[in-house]
Design a protein that fits this description.
With about 140 residues, the protein is mainly β. It has one domain: glutathione-dependent formaldehyde- activating enzyme (gfa). Helix content is about 10%, strand content about 35%. The longest helix has 7 residues. The protein starts with a strand and ends with a helix. Keywords: Lyase, Metal-binding, Zinc. This is CENP-V/GFA domain-containing protein. It holds the Pfam family GFA.
Length: about 140
């Protein structure tokens, strides 16, 4: 079981499973929405997530819709239009201690990585320059 919420706790969720993987995305959209050098996404099956209050949705690209809290603005999730069975939950919203969170398996969109951020060596995570490379795995 996993659980989490936005910063103000207006929106919370539970999951019937732990995340299947954790990916650090370095794309410009994720960086700007996270206000950080990357956004960490925890992946779940869509059917495993139960929102106690539904987050607000915003289509950000032709391929994805992001969800967020309308009160505090916290990024909560991302739905890839090509994968309706999966959902990415912003890993920072997960309740630590209550959720088994895996180590990052991939760094993606490194072609858009912030020039001032250096990736850690030896973290064991695979590296991909763009989505097309990662999506083929």
């Amino acid at each position: 079981m996993a659980s989490g919420s936005c910063a103000c706790n207006y929106i919370s969720y539970t999951a019937s499973t732990s995340p299947t993987s954790l990916v650090n995305c370095h794309c410009t959209t994720c960086r700007k929405q996270a206000g950080a050098p990357y956004q960490s996404w925890a992946f779940f099956a869509t059917e495993d997530i139960r929102w106690h209050v539904n987050p607000t949705e915003r289509r950000v690209t032709n391929g994805a819709t992001r969800t967020f809290c309308p009160q505090c603005g916290s990024t909560l999730g991302m739905l890839q239009h090509g994968d309706p069975k999966g959902i990415a939950i912003a890993a920072g919203t997960l309740d630590e201690g209550k959720t088994l969170i895996p180590l990052p398996s991939h760094h993606i969109f490194l072609s858009e990585k912030a020039s001032w951020f250096e990736l850690p060596e030896g973290d064991g995570a695979k590296r991909w320059d763009k989505w097309g490379d990662y999506n083929k795995v």
